[in-house]
Each structure stands twice: as structure tokens, then as C-alpha cells.
Amino acid sequence: MTNSTPPLVECEQIHAGLAVSDLSAAIEFYVKKLGFQLGFKWGDPPSFAGVTLGKVQIFLQEGTPTPNPETGAAYFSVGDADALYEFHRANGVEVVEEIGDRVYGIRDYVVKDLYGHSLVFGHYIYNAGPPIRIERVDVPVRLEKRLAGLLKDLAEHKRMSVDSCLEEMILHTNEGVEPHTKSTLRYIEELKKKHGIDYDSHGSYRFVEE
Fold first, then answer.
1. H or E segment at 23?
2. CA distance 150 to 173
């Protein structure tokens, strides 16, 4: 008798495993050329390793590479595919499909590693989809001077108007998710130093106008 109802499975991570003929060379390529970080090496001498890009880890194992150029690929969702693309091009990584906006709503590109494995890097195109008809209204907003400067710089960095940047943050708040990517958060840290923002997220409760 078979059970047709699958169990409730919690799965928060997935690791691609790639066979490489030279583990040391593969690690050097992934770290120096692709921008990954070495997570671990296993064995004496090492025959298995993990390299990470952000929170994503893939496994490299010594063996006979058998990449399938037609269907086999490892996909990575990143914060800014254009910046990573420029980094890969500058490092001489073989790009087999140039960066571009795809009909499936992702801007991505494809590279090959030393052993022919296809690696796809992309980010979501958030303006994909049908237009949403809206009516904008004027809302009187007065901001702390340093925060206003940061917001203006942030909107320019994201190629958005200040209005659209605020709308994006409110919409993310409505869904209970972080409105910024990791790379944007790092940039915000730079802007906080630039504008001298030395208070935390609860600082607004203590603002006193001069």
C-alpha cells in the first residue's frame, strides 16, 4: 500500500554539487575569478570543498566533469547582476550568454567555469508585469536633515525618484520583508557615515526640533 500524501518537509537550503578534475584549480577560479568565498575543504589531501556566494553554498568534488551544455546549470539570484557581470568580465571569465532582460522576469547572464559547467547569475526585474494605474497625492513630509540627505542619495543610487523609493519601502513593510538587498544595505552604511547619522532606528522617538 502506498501513501500518496507527501510529508510536510521543511527545506531551507539547496546545494549544487559539481565535479571538478582539479580541486585546487577549481577553488582558485571560484574564489578569485567568480567572487565566491571558500567555506571549507575536506580530506587529506582535500577532495571535497564548499564555496559560498552570499548565503548560497555549492560543493566542488574531485571527479570526472560531465556538464550538460543543453540543460545543466546552477542558478544564483543576486542583488545586482550588472555589477557581478562587470566583475566577471574584468576577470576574464568566459561569458556564453550576455546579460539581458529575459521574458521570465529576470535580468541574467551565463558563464562557464573551468570544466564547462554553466553558471547563471541574475536579479529580478521588479518593473516586469502590467502597469498598475494609480493616483498620487501630495503628502506633507518633513524629515530630519541628515535622513533626507541619505534618502536622496539612496534614491539616486537605485535610479528611482524619492517618491518611488519611499513607496517601495512602504510596500515591503506591508509584506513584512526587508526592503533592501544586502548590497544596498552595505551602501546605506556608507551613506550613514557620509551624512553623520549616529543614532539607531529608534532615534526618531527622541528627535527634538531646534
1. helix 23-28
2. 19
Alpha carbons within 13 A on the beta-carbon side of 123: 13
Question: CB neighbours of 199 closer than 8 A, spacing ≥ 6?
Answer: 206
Question: What pLDDT was estimated at residue 145?
Answer: 94
Q: Which residue bears the cell 564547462?
A: 116
- 3-class SS at 3? coil
Separation of alpha carbons 21 and 48, rounded Å: 11
- Number of residues in the chain: 210
* DSSP H/E element including 19: strand 17-20
Name the pTM for this structure. Answer: 0.69
Q: What are phi and psi of 177, to 5 degrees?
A: -125, 160
**Domain locations in the chain as residue ranges:** 17-124, 145-200
CATH superfamily of 17-124: 2,3-Dihydroxybiphenyl 1,2-Dioxygenase, domain 1 (3.10.180.10)
pLDDT < 70 stretches in the chain: 1-3, 67-71
Return d(Cα 124, Cα 142) in angstroms, integer.
33
CA distances from 31 to 25, 51, 99 (A): 10, 8, 21
